[in-house]
Amino acid sequence: MENSLATEEQEALDLLLERVGFLLKRKTGLLTDKEQELTSYLLARVTPLPMMEWPVLKVMWEKRLLPMSPMECVIVDKDPFQTPVEDLKILLSYRDDAHFPDCWHHPGSYLGSGDKIAEAVQRTIEKEIKSDVAEFWPVTMANFYKLARDHEFSYLHVCRLSGEVVIVPGKLEFLPALRPPANLLPHHKLMQERVVEWLMVMKELSPSHREMVLRVTRYLEAPLSK
Fold this sequence. Notes:
The protein contains six helices and seven strands. With 226 residues, it is of the alpha+beta class.
């Protein structure tokens, strides 16, 4: 991409964003005119989400400079409205790296610049699971205002896949919805609990009332043309 940052530019921008975060935390001092000018120049060259250069994105959310728009997909193995919650399983992926050591998590991504929500859900499933979405249901916009990362809010969706998933034991598995692993990421555990609550409420509704609720949530997520 023409506007991608070179390595030395990323390093310079990281240092400047670190300083911005420090000043915001201390609530003292300001960027110098020269720092403002350089920061603005480098930010103008950053690749928009969801392809933003990782070192820059990491500093943005670590310093909480701006709220991001995470898309979280809670993927179920069966029709969530026709299956008892205790019989549902949810697809989880395992990670063990510097950013997420020894943990399970739901597939997720960011709402990118110019994305429609449905496109972002589909892109997330294709990238993380190598599958396609058969259908998905908006659940809520979860507010994680005390989370250490950038997730002041996350768009939560329950999804069903249209194709087979290559299960890799210990890496990618359908696990019981009501018995998540102990090392499920803490905020993903909260998300899964919220989804389970939502499913229990939805299952108590008549089919016509449930469809009315789903129509309202789909309407709220529908892109505006202007």
